[in-house]
Design a protein that fits this description.
Strands 1-2-3-4-7-6-5 form a seven-stranded mixed sheet. It has ten helices and seven strands. A hairpin with a 7-residue loop joins strand 1 (116-123) and strand 2 (131-138). The chain is an alpha/beta fold and 303 residues long. The longest helix has 35 residues, at 21-55. It is globular, with a radius of gyration of 22 Å. It has two domains: 2-70 and 259-301, no CATH class; 83-224, Trna Endonuclease, Chain: A, domain 1. Helix content is 46%, strand content 13%. Helix 2 (21-55) runs parallel beside helix 10 (287-301), helix 7 (221-234) packs antiparallel against helix 8 and helix 7 runs parallel beside helix 10 (287-301). It has helices spanning 2-10, 21-55, 83-96, 100-105, 158-168, 186-193, 221-234, 240-257, 263-271, 287-301; strands spanning 116-123, 131-138, 142-148, 174-181, 197-198, 205-206, 216-220.
Length: 303
């Protein structure tokens, strides 16, 4: 609502509104004050997390949000925007993990590192469309497939891809399949699958429609960064190489996908004359949502 309102104010010559601008101005000022209060809490929370990182066994002693990666230039930083690049990095994290992260993110039946991790596995089928699986993990008795999504909302092919993975695989494994999407795409998943989306369990599950399909569990990028935070803060045995890869992926997920506020941006807001009321500095994420996320991180550290 805040961004929409600001857009209308800036374009009032084009959009005519029969509204009491005085009333809306009062509402806007109250909104800004509430945002300022929550952003101050958020800044304090990140400072507390810095202390938690400093006291942990992790090789890093500040929170991943200590650096601002919110550059508008898509070429900024080490990761380009294509889903294939996100998938490649996640596959590397899964491949080089000690096994704890896979268990944290997916299921505790995965107690060891995967024996193999493959990318872009293509399957041909004479009746169904040819499909390509983003990530496949294999253990002696288990198989796991992941469809990785960022902006693309072509989710409907995922259950068929899961089916083809099992049909064309050379080994008889117990399979589980996942669709990884941003939290902001939750409504898109619901619209595409409708009544086939079962939300009664711990995680949403896409049920088969009676054709050649397999059930698929929906997991969110927020859970990936949350799991990485948890493992980095509690697993002192992880290699420095894995910690470095995971730490930077957290930074990118939280600022590029989740649109979280970074500490330098918060500092700039409160230390300049422009302040938090500058609408161009207010991001789409609600500060309270980010606060809740960071509080869960601190809670998991003490479990």
């Amino acid at each position: 609502m805040n961004l929409y309102y600001g857009h209308l104010r800036r374009n009032s010559a084009v959009v005519e509104l029969d509204a009491d601008w005085g009333t809306l101005d009062g509402w806007w000022q109250q909104f800004v004050q509430n945002q300022k209060r929550d952003l101050e809490k958020l800044r304090t929370k990140i400072a507390a997390l810095d202390e938690a990182w400093a006291q942990s066994d992790c090789v890093f002693d500040v929170d991943p949000l200590a650096a601002d990666w919110t550059e508008t230039n898509p070429q900024a930083g080490p990761l380009r925007a294509q889903e294939e690049n996100w998938s490649q990095w996640l596959a590397h994290i899964l491949r080089s993990s000690s096994g704890d992260f896979v268990s944290t993110l997916f299921d505790d039946v995965y107690t060891s590192p995967p024996a193999t991790v493959r990318r872009e596995q293509a399957y041909h089928d004479d009746e169904l469309h040819d499909r390509r699986v983003d990530i496949i993990l294999e253990w002696p008795n288990y198989g796991l497939s992941i469809e990785v999504k960022i902006d693309d909302t072509a989710y409907e092919k995922t259950p068929q891809t899961a089916y083809l993975t099992e049909q064309h695989h050379s080994r008889d494994l117990q399979w589980r399949h996942y669709l990884l999407v941003p939290e902001a795409k939750r409504s898109a998943v619901s619209e595409i699958f409708g009544s086939r989306l079962d939300v009664d369990g711990d995680r949403p599950t896409i049920t088969p429609d009676g054709t050649a399909e397999q059930p698929v569990t929906v997991v969110y990028w927020l859970e990936v960064s949350q799991g990485l935070r948890q493992d980095l803060l509690t697993d002192g045995d992880a290699s420095p190489h894995w910690q470095a890869s995971a730490y930077l992926l957290i930074t990118l997920i939280e600022q590029k996908i989740l649109q979280f506020y970074a500490d330098p941006l918060l500092t700039e807001m409160f230390d300049t004359t422009v302040g938090v009321s500058d609408i161009d500095r207010i991001q789409s994420i609600e500060p309270r949502d980010q606060l809740e996320y960071l509080e869960r991180t601190m809670d998991s550290q003490h479990e």
